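FAQ: What does the model actually see?

It sees only this:
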Amino acid sequence: MDRQHRFLMVGIGASAGGLEALGLFFQGLREPPGMAFVVISHIGRDRPSELATLLSNFTTLSVFTVEDGVQIAPNHVYVSPPGVTMTMSSGRVKVHHDGSDLARTKAIDIFFSSLAEDQGEYAAAIVLSGLDGDGTLGIKAIKERNGLTMAQTGNGPSPKFDSMPQSAIATGLVDLALPAQEMGPRLIEFARGMGALADLGPGAGRTRLNDIISKKAEICTILLDQLGHDFSGYKDATFARRVQRRCLFLNIALASEYVEKLRAEPAEAATLFRDLLINVTDFFRDADAFDSLAKDVVPSLLENRTSQDTLRVWVPGCATGEEVFSLAILLMEAIEGRESAPRVQVFATDIDERALDVARAGRYPAPMMKEVSEERRKRFFVKDGEGYLITRAIREICIFSPHSVFRDPPFSRIDLVSCRNLLIYLGGDVQHQVLPIFHYSLRTRGYLFLGLSENIGSHSDLFEPIDRKNRIFRARGDKRAMPQLPFRLDRKPGYPASVPRSSSVSRLRREAEMQILERHAPQFVLVNTAGDIVYFSSDTGSFLQPSAGAPTRALIDLVRKGARVEVRSALRECMETWKPVRRSGLRIEIEPRKVLVHTITIEPLAKRDGEEPLLLVVFHQVGEEVAGRFAEAASQSATNEDPADVDAEMKDIRDRLQATIEEYETSMEELRSANEELVSLNEEQQSSNEELEASREELQSLNEELQTVNAELKMNIIELDAANEDLRHFFESTEVATVFLDSQLTIRNYTVPALEVFRMKPADKGRALADLSTRIDYPNFERDLQTCLLEGSSKSVEVPARDGGTYYRLLIRPFDKLRNSEAGLVVTATDITELVQLRKMSPPASGEHKRE
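And it is asked to produce this:
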């Protein structure tokens, strides 16, 4: 298309509740807009659609149902036929009848994506009322090619079903979220400003370009100060076009005015930041980076892995899933052909559940598959109409889940974290928090894969570069310190901040009791049934000591050496019997020549309703020895000890060890069995989830069709009401006596003058007309009615009234058979008295006039 004659092409996606939204949109267009509109809706192929006819009631523009190959022209509205998908090529619409019913539920994505590829910045996409998330991927495609994106929101008549527009808005790629009736004027304003964007092109006037470039340094400084990102290296033309788009939306003429806007409103700086970062989001984005990952990282991940191992990948901020499936394909290619390949799990998380729904569906328009080779398309995708569906083998290894990197606990034992183009949207403080979380999640020597515009910043102590150019890093060291996560401790309801003291006696007693507890009571801890400490008393250091490594609350790990076996045995015995257990003579060396002798008591804590059971572990220090004396005493004791006692003690130790081994083996067997059950259950749930997802999409499609049918029926009812009202006014105002008879020649309806001519009453509806004593003198009236009804013929006859002073022309006509309606007759009686009198006064031309 000639550049000088290009115009804006607007794709409008609407589904359930869309007819009302479309009506509001077109009613908002008060003048010829100079652009073309293509309406895409979800209507099944098994029934005709009257959407084009209904839309013509809301606009003066020409409305057509699309035919294959039609050339799009401005000031026209093109409506998709039912049960098809459409694409745009060279300004012409192509209609596709192939593809499954599920493929047609993504008809909006398919058209928007092809529109973006065909028209570039002259493409616009509008998402109106509807269910599911169709249109979300298409919005991304339009935005990536500098087109205009809009979505319906409230502030007036809200969308009846907001799933579609809200899914689009959640991507952050919608330029304008407006009520439907306000979209038209903003579209016209944007279309008028398209010339300003054209002025920025090569060979055109450079006034606007120079104006923006002169302020580029100031704009970049503002972005750097507010958001911490430097865009001074952006190409001038690209930078100017993105800034000019923002000026169009804000009705700002000069770059200096926009600079002041940026300084005054940080939100606008964030919006420009997102616009400047927009890039194509396709599969295998940044092909060189994925090639480096496949060459330098994947072989290392698979090294020494067997079928008993699991390769775990985490993709935070996965959005609509292209990166997730790209990584899954890369890993599947690597493990194919291996004799003992590990199991692969790709955990894909995002805070946007609507985007996750799009990702779970795994269905993408063809224009988004450009970076996927033909070989990969055949192996890992199934073509469905004008879209592609990810294969089951790839889909099953990808687990999608809502998750916030900042609020939720991180995943653990991860081999590869792929977080591409998420950090650039975060401030420096948040990045400083997120990168240690990734380090904690990774296994020793695990890998981190970032976007080309991202880096590890000041965390070189946590990661070492593998490929700086492609932003691939490896976790340093073996130490896994728990990163600081946001948390909040709230006071539980029902517990006052302070205890009122009713008297000085109570206060003195309480102070005395507290001092006794602190100075004279034994040390203790409370543990749960998992063996984790939930409360420490003071001064437990003589018995407990933190070990090196990651922090832990496990009692057995904190007990000092020399007492762990006895504590483990006593703890297990107490849990099994739920009775107090006591162990004496525990000698613990806390200093080179200092040994403390302890007795421990473990007993169940009194049960509390609705709370987990706890165990009370009390440490009683019964003595202190010098290490040398202890060794000497132990040697003397060993010399004098009875061999029978030694044998009994050894037997007891062997029995405990054997019981521990058997318990360990039983636990391992139970864990293996539980793991197999969980794997099987997970596979069943994934299969059920896919079936439910397919059923949900089918039900949504059916519901959308029913909503559209309902809207059309409402419009038909409105039209019928208007027609009935017109008929009522006609019946009441006409002077022609008319009676409508059904196939039994009974009265169906009549006009007011017919009451007098045929001597009818309103109660005579349903009676045979021939049974009434009418004013007309027509003996063959009933016979002629029967003849006209049976033969489908008409008859006109002049008849006098019974009073002899009035004459009528009686016309009997059958109902129109072409309407495929019930048989019947229309009988009209016209007063021709004056005509008959004039005829009598005039001499006849020949012969005498005879009545038929």
